[in-house]
Amino acid sequence: IALGVLGGLAVLSSLLKTAGWKRRIGSPMIDLQTVMKFLVYYAGDLANVFFIITVGTGLYWLIFFKAQKLAFVLLPGPAQEERLVTYVGCAFALKALQFLHKLISQITIDIFFIDWERPKRNVFKAAEGEGGVRSAAVPVSIWRTYFIANEWNEIQTVRKINPLFQVLTVLFFLEVVGFKNLALMDLSSSLSRSPPSYIAPYSRILRYAVSTVLWLVIGIIQIVFFAVFYERFIEDKIRQFVDLCCMSNENLCSQRGLVPNTDGQTFQIAVSSQMRQHYDRIHETLTRKNGPARLLSSSASTFEQSIKAYHTMNKFLGSFIDHVHKEMDYFIKDKLLLERILGMEFMEPMEKSIFYNDEGYSFSSVLYYGNEATLLIYDLLFFSVVDLACQNFLLAAFLTYLQQEIFRFIRNTVGQKNLASKTLVDQRFLI
Question: Fewer CB within 10 Å, N- or C-terminus of the chain?
Fold first, then answer.
């Protein structure tokens, strides 16, 4: 019953996510890309369903089996145990698919930094031209953009927990404190066993329940600690990045807030079709590797075309936000409560684009930081699958941390290359 109900809710959730994605890209057609997107969303939601059911089942047996004084409730037989292990394996496979989709999306995302600084009109330098020496405005320094790009590069894999602390703490409670003894197939709830006494074999269901509960409790405690204490009183890297952009005039506003007397610095933008077409034309030139440019001189080199397209894009986006293009104007509004809950916007950006106030820093969804729930459950399921296969918490902890570091390295390395490519920042200056 639980699988049927939660599975139906997973389908509904996936449909809403797909509908929201289709509205944002401005495509009403249902094509192969739409179907694939729905399947990826559904894989993630169905993984959560399997995860909830398996954790609930494991907790049920752990509580009712260990709480009894006399053996009235027996643990499931090998066939039932194998079925739960299969569900855990399915949950891991589907969650891995969701994680890889998010990873690929993050390392291929389009990103552009708008530089609001203008050439100084009152400061000139001598520049040699065809007619001799003439005066030219001093260009804007690129170092500010390099600095912001470096800060973005540093927060790409920032998480709401410390992964190493998570793995070591779970391992400490299991092996040192003795929580692994709760997974023995006896009625004792003691965390210690004397070596001479008889030690019952382990139950895979109970091992899964104990390790899952520990992982979730420690993870939630870390998240609460970082949100309530660490980010408030020590360091909040996401908020620091937003403030740094504002101070550097490298954001969506040349003042602190687009609307007078407001401090709103981050927005979700639903662009009109006209603005999107204009953006796409410039973006095509910016990302083109070969072939003549439509907007720029075809005699220029590919690199020169990219540089010119970069400045064209920067000027266009800056003027768009400054309300220069009346035919491509925009207005600012708050999202409705239902829009926030469903994660989709109801209003279509017809003649004007829409800037939605975004106090939750939704741009973090393209970083590790905004996907902590997915990462936490994926790591937990990886740990559980290894342990269910080998019945070795130490090996499971080692392999879990190893895969975390491998994917973090991939995310940092490929993400840095993508950042350099999309922003035209020399990768040698990204630390």
Answer: N
